[in-house]
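General statements about sequence and structure are easier to judge against a single worked case. For one protein, we set the task of working out the structure tokens from the amino acid sequence alone. The sequence in question and its structure tokens are set out directly beneath this paragraph.
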Amino acid sequence: MQQIIHLRKKKLSTVLSKNETMLFRKINKGAPKFIQKRYESLIKKKNEETLSQAEYEELLELTSYMESLQVERLENLIELAKFQNISLDELIDQLELKPKINVL
């Protein structure tokens, strides 16, 4: 679920402000690895139809947590786009972000 943001060459030469640096850190922050691995493991079990009721409930909780991280990430992307005076779509294109969708 975690994506690393790669900037174009022109962006690499740009010195980032403290606000931009803070926003990039927040944008790049994902779930802790142990949570991400557990989440992926539960999704795999769900897809294999081997998920217990307790695991299903855990998956629902983790899904809610992962969604909240994505909301925070989007909010930070919007703030960064405003800070750079460009649209969100332009920022997403510049950062070459690609969506990753996990469906329960």
User: Anything to note?
Assistant: The radius of gyration is 16 Å. Residues 53-83 form the longest helix (31 residues). The chain has one domain: 9-95.
